[in-house]
Amino acid sequence: MEVMVFSVGLIKKVIVAIKTLVIIVMAKYLYLLMAVIGLIDFINKILSMTNILSGFIGKAVNVTFVTLLIAGSMVWSTGGAKAQVAGSIINPGFEDQATGTDKKVAAGWLPYEQGYKRVKAAHTGAWGITLQSDRSNPGTAGAYQRIDLQQGEIKPVQITGYIKGDRIVNQAGGWFGASLYAEIYLQDGSVVYWNSVPNFGTFGWRWIGFNTGTLAAVNQPIDHIFLVPILGDARGQAWFDDIAVKEHEPGVGVVTIMFDDGELSTYEEALPAMEKQGWQGSTAVITEMVDEDGFMGWEQLQALQRKGWEVVSHGITHEDLTTLSVNKVKQELNNSKRQLERKGLVVNHFALPFGAYNAEIMALGTKSYKSVRAYEQGSNPVGILPWEVKVHGVTTATDSATIADWVNEAKNKGQWIVIVYHKIAEMGDDAYFTTPSDLEEMLQTISDSGIEVVTYNQGWEKFGAL
Ligand SMILES: [Zn+2]
After folding, report:
1. What pLDDT was estimated at residue 222?
2. Which end of the chain lies in a sparser environment, N or C, as judged by fewer CB atoms within 10 Å?
3. 44 C-alpha vs ligand 1 centroid, how far in Å?
4. Selection from 201, 137, 142 nearest residue 169 by Cα
5. Is 188 found in the same domain as 159?
6. Are 144 and 110 in contact (CB under 8 A)?
7. 86-140: per-residue pLDDT in tens?
């Protein structure tokens, strides 16, 4: 009997070990395969093509494919690096030198592949680390630490840090520049690989990171995380400092209802439907289009604000910011805000045209906005970062049952959902329109669920990382 129990346990352990290995190997070869057949480029091309096809006020189709599930090939050593208190991180600012070593080694941080150096270059304090892969043998460099969480229930975990870069470029076959990379071990031993948006080029200190609550694959409590500030198969030099891991309690689900592009139907159709429920909506406005045929005018936008609605900037021209020069991007971000403010509108957030972005756009955008919204589909956990707010985009394929599913998920997971509509009309020239009667039915579905409806900024104030 005892032997049987022991054997079953052993077999289980072996199965878990094999499963883990298979996941690691599969993930690794999936990436290699994708790289080899140019699938990543291909996806980017499809996305940009769809963007072009959807026309000038082309609605966001999807985001530029920037965050990749990547593979780990690391054999982790946890000796001396295990955080002592659940959820804590040792030496997050690299201020402490590891005992019995030279000052280039930080307490708590082990070398990842080509390793790191503790140096006097800091976002705060005196010390940080620098990553630079060997010029004669370029590869991946990093530092890592194991963070034990041993969660009893699913809780979102915010992983952030500050990064500075000097001429960072991917090598052939490289894929994620400098970023925060994590291998997230779930309760059953399966692993989720994720990294923040990759950072390239030369830039000053910027905040980066992600929230595990945004990852659908993190569908059970987290046991532990290997956290790696990384220069992944890239040339150049990166500096990291002030790494933070913050676990949040689930929130109370809320919903924001948003109407993109500032079309006239927002005022003529959406406003009365929202008023009927006693709710305030939010609208993302293209400033160049204000007062144009088919779009709201300044007086209508001001009237919306008086009624408690929120105006979000959607840029001046609705051009894909990833195709513009840095100066043009700054104009789109800053001048659109100024134009709206000059008309008395309070603007706290930006919605990216086509949802397209890269690390530089996000870093520029979050200087003048509380958040920069892309168009990735999903819900927002507590501790959502300013560059990772997700939406549920409504198309002609969306019905009340879909809305009910989204709302239930927000309630069950304690998350904030942002439902985005475009034109409210009987007819449209693409998939981004909703008939007035469908809108009314969908709003009724939301009302019946009893979930609280808030504006975008109210949602951000409850769920956003500060
Ligand atoms: Zn738009």
Report:
1. 97
2. N
3. 19
4. 201
5. yes
6. yes
7. 458 999 999 999 998 889 999 999 999 999 999 999 999 999 999 998 888 888 9
pLDDT tens string 400-412 = 999 999 999 999 9
Residue 162 sits in the same domain as residue 231: yes
Residue 59 alpha carbon to ligand 1 centre in Å: 5
Tell me the pTM. Answer: 0.81
Sign of CA dihedral 89, 95, 98, 104: positive
The partner residues of 158 in beta bridges, in order of sequence, read 211, 246
Mean pLDDT along residues 371-399:
96
Task: Please state, for a pLDDT cut of 90, what percent of the chain lies above it.
Answer: 76
Asked if 379 and 406 count as a contact pair (C-beta separation under 8 A), the reply is yes
User: Does 414 share its domain with 318?
Assistant: yes
Long-range contacts of 329-335 (CB under 8 A, 24+ apart): 329/360, 329/361, 329/364, 330/364, 333/364, 333/365, 333/368, 333/369, 334/368, 335/287
Longest CA–CA span in the chain (Å) reads 81
What is the per-residue DSSP string for 321-338? GGGS-HHHHHIIIIIHHH
Neighbours of 207 (CB within 10 A): 19
Q: Do residue 295 and residue 202 come from a single domain?
A: no
Strand positions, DSSP E, 212-291: 222-231, 234-247, 254-261, 282-285
Cα 41 to middle of ligand 1, angstroms: 24
Residues 6+ apart with CB under 8 A from 202: 165, 166, 167, 168
| Radius of gyration over every alpha carbon of the chain, rounded to an integer in angstroms | 24
> Which residue range forms the structural domain that includes residue 161?
64-247
Question: Residue 346, Cβ neighbours under 10 Å: how many?
Answer: 10
Q: How many angstroms does the Cα of residue 320 sit away from the middle of ligand 1? A: 10
Residue 402: phi and psi, rounded to 5, are: -65, -45
- For residues 12 and 464, what is the distance between their CA atoms, to the nearest angstrom? 41
Q: Among residues 85, 77, 68, 71, which one has the least CA distance to residue 245? A: 85
Amino acid in position 237: Q
Rounded distance from Cα 60 to ligand 1 centre (Å): 6
Torsion of CA 213, 215, 220, 225, to 10 degrees: -80
Quote the ligand 1 centre to 50 CA distance (angstroms).
14
Last residue of a domain, one of 200, 226, 247: 247
Looking at the fold, whether 362 and 237 belong to one and the same domain comes out as no
